[in-house]
Design brief:
It holds the Pfam family Retrotran_gag_2. This protein has 223 residues and is mainly α. It has 2 domains: 70 residues; 100 residues. It is 58% helix and 2% strand. The protein has a two-stranded antiparallel sheet. The chain is flat. The N and C termini lie far apart (108 Å).
């Protein structure tokens, strides 16, 4: 939503979005829901927030918070809250489920997050099997898990979510151990390279023959 488009005279209390939509967003009624939402948003003079694309406002002006940004943030959060209240729980959970990513989460936390979102979808009335959850889990994993994902995918038997989590965690431990060994090897090689004693260069040995010795003596003392 665009902060530059917020009306300068917008009043948070005078334009409270207290109207509840009779039509709530579901998987099959998007067009009907959208038409109702547009009318209400325009009627509250908030249509510029979701429908206009302009540059963002600065959060701070010098060291003080930008008052225009603060006003826009109130409008944005109010509108976002109202839009979410006009959707069924299944739609909200499905949207979150579609965008869930592992990111910096551990494998166990990532699996728990995916599982909780899938449970919310099921509670809301939709059907989702365990294999659907596992496939979704695989779609957002880092490339370092590709080998174990391929191994699980091509198995003839279907694994449970707990079994998949165990294999993923074991793969993570193996990767960490492998990387630790590589780091240790590199450090040892560096220590051997820079810690080896340096020897002085010696001149090459030049053997002398009997004839050459006599010639040198003749040069010194004369014939």
């Amino acid at each position: 939503m665009n902060p530059m488009a917020t009306p300068a005279t917008w009043n948070l209390f005078a334009h409270s979005l207290s109207i509840s939509l009779i039509v709530k967003l579901y998987c099959t009624n998007f067009l009907a829901w959208k038409s109702k939402v547009i009318l209400i948003v325009i009627g509250h003079d908030l249509d510029n927030i979701p429908f206009t694309g302009m540059s963002l406002l600065q959060v701070f002006v010098t060291v003080e918070p930008n008052p225009q940004y603060l006003q826009w943030n109130k409008c944005d959060q109010l509108l976002l809250s109202w839009l979410r209240s006009s959707m069924y729980e299944e739609v909200l959970a499905t949207g979150q489920f579609s965008h869930v990513r592992k990111g910096a989460l551990s494998i166990s936390d990532y699996v728990d997050k995916v599982q909780s979102l899938s449970d919310a979808i099921i509670i809301a009335g939709s059907t989702m099997g365990e294999q659907d959850v596992i496939l979704k889990l695989f779609n957002r994993l880092h490339p370092e898990y590709n080998s174990v994902v391929l191994g699980i995918t091509f198995r003839s038997d279907a694994l449970s979510l707990d079994e998949v989590q165990t294999l993923l965690m074991a793969n993570k431990i193996n990767l960490e151990q492998h990387n630790a060994i590589i780091d240790l090897t590199i450090k040892m090689q560096a220590n051997l390279t820079y810690g080896a004693p340096r020897t002085r260069k010696s001149l090459p040995y030049q053997p002398t023959t009997r004839g050459s010795t006599l010639e040198n003596q003749n040069c010194l003392y004369g014939r």
